[in-house]
Amino acid sequence: MRNRRFTSEASKWRAGARSVQVDVELLPPYHQIAKTRNIRIVIEGNTLDKLIEALIRQIPALEEHITGEEIPGAMPFLLLINGKIVHGKEQSQIFLKSGDRVALTRIVAGG
Fold this sequence. Notes:
By secondary structure, this protein is of the alpha+beta class. It is built from four helices and five strands, in the order H-E-H-E-H-H-E-E-E. It has a five-stranded mixed beta sheet. A hairpin with a 2-residue loop joins strand 3 (77-81) and strand 4.
C-alpha cells in the first residue's frame, strides 16, 4: 500500500500538479520585445506549456512571437533547459523543476 501512495505522488509531480520556480533568459529578439533579458517565473504545474502560458501572461507582447501560428502545433523558438537544447518532440516529455534555467531564442535556419 505504501508504494501505491508514493507512485500516486510521483505521477502528480509528472502531471504538473505542483508549482515550480524557473529562471528564464530571453535571448534575441525576445529580450528586445520584452524589454528585459531575465525573468523569474513561478508556474502552476511543471510543463513547458505551462511555462509558455505563464510567460505570455507576464509579458503579453511575446504572444504573437511565440505562439506558433505559422505552423500549427509547432513552436517557432528554440528552448534550452539548463544549457541543453530541447527538440520539438522532446518538449512534451520535459518536466521542469524549481531552479531550472530556461533560455528562449529564435530558431535560425540557413545555409
